Amino acid sequence: MLLALAMTAQAQEHSAGSTAPPEPTCKTCRWLDLETARISTRFLFIDDGHGETVAKQNQHQEVIEGKFKFDRSEKFTLNFGISSGENFAAEWNNTGWGGDHGSANLYLKRLYLAAMPVKGVEVQYGSFGFLKGESTAITSYADDGYVIGERIVIERPEKLFFDQVAVTYGYFGDYSTPNINKRYHRLKRSNYHQFLVGKKVGQRAAVSVDYTFQEGAETMREAVNLQVKELRVIDTLRVENYQRVDVDPASGFAVTGAKHLSKRLTVGGGFAQVDRHFGLYNSDAFFEGRRVFVSSTIELTPEFSISVHCNRAIANNFAVSNRNVVHLGFHYDLLKTLKRSGIF
Predict the structure, then answer these.
(1) Beta-carbon neighbour count of residue 297 at 10 Å?
(2) Is residue 33 a part of any domain in this protein?
(3) CA dihedral defined by 132, 136, 141, 145, rounded to 10 degrees?
(4) Cβ–Cβ contacts within 10 Å for residue 176, how many?
(5) Taking the CB of residue 248, how many other CB atoms lie within 10 A of it?
(6) Confidence of residue 57 (pLDDT cuts 50, 70, 90)
(7) For the purposes of burial, counting CB atoms within 10 Å of the CB of 101, is it exposed (0-12), middle (13-18) or buried (19 or more)?
(8) Model confidence over 187-204: pLDDT tens digits?
(9) What is the pLDDT of residues 127-148, one digit of tens each?
(10) 296 domain-assigned
């Protein structure tokens, strides 16, 4: 009996010694969920339609996004987004190297309450980003953009035909006032609304359609994102379109392909056409005009990566604000470090 107990204890000790140490437990996740914590720097070059250099400098970027949870089931949350960048389409500050004065401003651009009264239905109120479905910042709004108002998002595909249905009413504007503390009064006004639906088609395709009313202009957008690994040349293909039916009626589109050359290297590129009256509301790498573009991302480690983006405006019958655009960025995903340490 004693021998059996000794052997059992020895086996338990051996088992405990061979077991990998447990993963760090999150110390703050009950109350705070950090979704993004990123620090970046980039070299930026832009010239205009006349060949004059607009920017040739180094910039830096800080982005923090997350939510405070009022209950364990996350039915009530306060969501926030803090980032650099002094206008609607910018999320970068200048370092002072290469021109312009350096800055280190951070703005609370997004802050909204979210409530989920029933599973799959969320109501939002405050300043938030745009829902774009399968469209991107090329033909829709900049990823850094903001609108203030109210939104309802329904994601109940088992009950509805669509995977996502969303309705937004709010105020669109204050291009150079990213700080929500100076935009609260806009909650009383409404000049923007959007109706969006999205649907996944099997495992290979996702489709979205939306109607947007923005300061009197009505725009329809459609986009499809396809998995096409059988083509071998590319793994994914995205096609997006828009049609503005009044207030300078026009249309545009973008076709983008991407290929994973290895586990750490992704390359992509395509062609885009954005009309000259679109407004500076989409990605600042594109804005208006016809252009070809290429990009790549290299993951050096789980935390560090390098990104490259180049595009050139071609065959336009007007002077574009950015003819050649080159971004060379270095990014540090601070959130992955914090998660590994068990803080988040």
Answers:
(1) 18
(2) no
(3) 90
(4) 8
(5) 11
(6) very high
(7) exposed
(8) 999 999 999 999 999 999
(9) 999 999 999 999 999 999 999 9
(10) yes
The tokens for 174 are 């204050």
Tokens of 10: 């020895």
User: What whole-number distance in Å separates Cα of residue 22 and Cα of residue 223?
Assistant: 43
Would residue 140 count as lying in a domain?
yes
Query: Which of 177, 33, 164 is closest to 109 using CA atoms?
Result: 177
Instruction: Give me the amino acid identity at 72.
Output: R
Cα–Cα–Cα angle for 183, 189, 193, nearest 5°? Answer: 105
> Total structural domains in the chain?
1
Residue 228 has which token pair? 């096409």
Residue 8 lies in a domain: no
Are 114 and 123 contacting, i.e. CB atoms less than 8 angstroms apart? yes
The 3-class SS string of the chain reads CHHHHHHHHHHHHHHHHHCCCCCCCCCCCCCEEEEEEEEEEEEEEEECCCCCEEEEEEEEEEEEEEEEECCCCCCEEEEEEEECCCCCCCCCEECCCCCCCCCCCCEEEEEEEEEEEECCEEEEEEEECCCCCCCCCCCCCCCCCCEEEEEEEECCCCCCCCCEEEEEEEECCCCCCCCHHHCHHHHHCCCEEEEEEEEEECCCEEEEEEEEEECCEEEEEEEEEEECHHHCCCCEEEEEEEEECCCCCEEEEEEEEEEECCCCEEEEEEEEEECCCCCCCCCCCCCCEEEEEEEEEEECCCCEEEEEEEEEECCCCCCCCCCEEEEEEEEEEHHHHHHHHCCC
β-strands 107-118, 205-214: how paired? Answer: unpaired
CATH number of the domain to which 293 belongs: 2.40.160.10
Range of the domain at 125: 39-341
